[in-house]
Specification:
The protein is built from 28 helices and 9 strands. By secondary structure, the protein is an alpha/beta fold. The protein has 3 domains: 38 residues; 398 residues, Na+/H+ antiporter like fold (Up-down Bundle); 223 residues, 3-Layer(aba) Sandwich (Rossmann fold), CATH 3.40.50.620. Helix 25 links the parallel strand 4 and strand 5. Helix 3 packs across helix 4 and helix 4 packs parallel to helix 16.
């Protein structure tokens, strides 16, 4: 049958190829009748090949590749090396691709990548990305948190706006003559200087809290509440300021404000109930229909269009559309899954590049402008940090929490760039002031982490806390760190077996770490509960209590090692996974854990492990620590175990078995326990397909 199909395929190609050749020859006769002269260039036209990059579509694809690649790479460096949020690295990448670095040292390259004719297209894409992003930010705001801590939060939030706003207006008084653009009134300039000083970056702040596991603490709850109130107040103020700046007279401003209130009331009392009814349909559904997605996107863009036409900027409409999305059901989660990755990975880096192309750090060559930058930075820190900390102290927080709140509220980041770009587009901020404020936003945000560390260290020295020593009881303390549910269940069952199925001698903690930096606070709560549902059920089936801990971080290795230290774990059990560009089961993150973890580490390579019934222990000698490690496991009732000496496994390599291992001796076992050093010596890593599941054990004594 296969031969007949191949013959038919070849015959078809031959017949139609011949017919096509005959048709082309006949067509050439028609050309001669029309006296057409066709010149054929026999040389390789490389110049025309490179000119194709100037085609608008090809250039756009090239720009997206360069922008997204640079953003992810610099974001990765900031996360891993500098312990900063990845979004800060993406912002820096955008600035580096602009005239501050690429254009300064390689102007031809920048001119090739970002010719002026391509900037309107990039600018439009960046605005679409910002609309989607502000919609997501609006959805992430949990207005219910304002009810519990409304009084203290509003005091701190409004103090953190009023104080820097007033200081910004004072700066505007001194900067107006020299740095305000022509035809810009003092009112517009001073109001924008004030609001630029007052912004707090809610998404960056929430990310910092997640990475430091402060979200569920009283401090984290208070800061998130303050930031939510701050965001709402600041965006309302910004809408009013944009209205005043665009309006030519008082009557126009009042008319715009009236339209804005009518729009807000329409969104709250007409659109929000409709969305609530839509949300009730998706309380238990796992996906959205295309009609529902289209409706929500139409509401989003209609809201943005309305605010743009009214004169208070499209971003305010996107933000409010997100705020009124119903909290009940899965609607927020489902729509965020549809658009968040596209907005954050593709569109936001383009916005950062647009910002970078506008940021000309070389304009600050004049020492006087660096003094201006220093003054702006000082006023920004004093206004936001000191203002928030003092207000928190007055509201009843202790000094450590008050200063921590001040440091966190001083985070400006991405939201500051949004405000600055609005001011730049309206012609209110000059290029010099724009560059100064962009640098201020970077410095204040990058300093948040070190400031928090410094505050914690200072108060740690002034307060005496008892040193946590390892308990002297005989319990086996096992930490199970997992990413996938199936692996977590396997590790919990194995940990129970290691204890000899003795419940009272086992203290088991399951640690689930998510590197996902796009989860909202509501999603974190739901995801945390869902992550451990199967693990807890496994514990119930075994008759043991499994303690659970959920963390979000980009530095998985540090988090696991540090947690094992704090909990004085005897054994750490983790699942193996090959890195993308490596064949090693013990490379990547696992290598760092093996190098730094102060406990015995077991790495499970799950090759279809269902039950732990037949176990083989590979050992070198009678004093091999692997024997002591598996002692209680092998003594279990019903457990079929076998000890295999390593020297009995070694055999010459053959064509049928190109490995120096007698595979027939280890086939048929559900799990093989082996010392990590022996695993490496025997060369199991070189196998394309392992015969069964393995547990690699790294002992502290080896």
């Amino acid at each position: 049958m296969k031969t007949r199909s191949s013959f038919f395929y070849g015959f078809t190609l031959l017949v139609f190829g011949c017919l096509g050749y005959y048709l082309l020859q006949a067509g050439s006769v028609l050309e001669s009748a029309k006296n057409i002269n066709i010149t054929v260039n026999e040389h390789l036209d490389t110049e025309n090949f490179f000119n194709r990059f100037h085609h608008p579509l090809a250039l756009l694809f090239l720009q997206i590749i360069v922008v997204c690649g640079s953003a992810r790479f610099v974001g990765y460096l900031f996360t891993r090396k500098l312990k900063q949020p990845s979004v800060m690295g993406e912002i820096v990448a955008g600035i580096l691709l602009g005239p501050s670095l690429l254009g300064y040292y390689f102007p031809e390259t920048m001119g090739f990548l970002f010719p002026p004719s391509s900037l309107p297209t990039l600018g439009t894409l960046s605005q679409i990305g910002l609309v989607l992003f502000m919609f997501i930010i609006g959805m992430e705001l949990d207005l219910s948190v304002l009810k519990n801590k409304a009084h203290s939060a509003i005091i701190i939030s409004h103090a953190s706006i009023i104080f820097p706003f007033f200081l910004g207006m004072i700066l505007a008084y001194y900067f107006y003559t020299d740095y305000a653009p022509k035809d810009v009134g003092f009112l517009s300039f001073s109001l924008f200087m004030g609001i630029a000083m007052s912004i707090t970056a809610f998404p960056v702040l929430a990310r910092i809290l997640q990475e430091r596991n402060l979200t569920r603490t009283p401090l984290g709850a208070m800061v998130l509440t303050c930031a939510a109130a701050d965001d709402i107040t600041a965006w309302i103020l910004l809408a009013i300021i944009v209205t005043i700046s665009k309006a030519g007279n008082l009557n126009t401003a009042l008319f715009t404000i009236g339209l804005s209130f009518a729009y807000i009331l329409t969104m709250i009392y007409l659109v929000a109930p409709f969305l609530k009814r839509l949300g009730s349909i998706y309380i238990s559904r796992e996906n959205l229909t295309r009609t529902a997605v289209a409706l929500i996107l139409m509401i989003l863009f209609l809201s943005s269009l309305t605010t743009e036409v009214i004169g208070i900027h499209a971003l305010f409409g996107a933000f409010l559309a997100g705020v009124i999305m119903p909290a009940e059901g899965n609607l927020k989660k489902l729509i965020a899954e549809k658009i968040e990755d596209l907005a954050v990975i593709l569109f936001l880096p383009i916005f950062f590049v647009i910002t970078g192309l506008r940021t000309k750090v070389n304009l600050l060559n004049d020492s006087h402008l660096w003094l201006v930058f220093g003054l702006v930075l000082l006023v920004a820190v004093v206004g936001k940090f000191i203002g928030s900390a003092f207000a928190a102290r007055v509201a009843g927080s202790n000094w450590e929490d008050s200063l921590s709140i001040g440091a966190l509220m001083n985070t400006r980041g991405l939201m500051e760039l949004v405000v600055l770009n609005i001011g730049y587009d309206l012609g209110i901020l000059s290029p010099e002031i724009f560059a100064v404020f962009v640098l201020m936003a970077l410095v204040t945000t990058l300093s948040t982490g070190p400031l928090l560390d410094g505050i914690q260290k200072f108060f740690a020295r002034t307060t005496t806390t008892p040193f946590s020593e390892k308990p002297s009881d005989s319990k086996l303390r096992v930490l199970v760190a997992f990413a996938q549910e199936k692996m977590g269940k396997s590790l919990v069952r194995f940990a129970f077996s290691l204890s000899g199925n003795q419940k009272k001698n086992l203290e088991l903690i399951a640690l689930h770490i998510s590197p996902n930096d796009s989860l909202s606070n509501e999603e974190i709560r739901k995801y945390r509960d869902a992550s451990f549902e199967a693990i807890r059920q496994t514990g119930v089936n075994l008759g043991i209590q499994v303690q659970t801990e959920y963390r979000i971080t980009d530095n998985v290795t540090y988090e696991i090692v540090n947690f094992a230290k704090i909990k004085h774990s005897d054994i750490l059990l983790i699942g193996a996974a090959k890195p993308l560009f490596s064949r090693s089961y013990t490379g990547g993150k696992i290598k760092g854990i093996l190098n730094y973890c102060p406990a015995t580490v077991g790495v499970l390579i799950d090759n279809g492990l269902e039950t732990i019934e037949r176990v083989a222990i590979l050992y070198k000698g009678e004093k091999d620590p692997i024997l002591g490690f598996a002692q209680k496991l092998t003594s279990l009732k019903g457990m079929k175990s076998n000890k295999i000496k390593v020297e009995n496994l070694i055999q010459p390599e053959t064509d049928l078995n190109p490995y120096p291992i007698a595979l027939n001796q280890i086939t048929g076992y559900s799990l093989i326990l082996i010392d990590l050093n022996v695993w490496e010596e025997l060369g199991f890593e070189k196998m394309d397909l392992l015969p069964t599941s393995f547990l690699l054990v790294r002992f502290l004594t080896t």
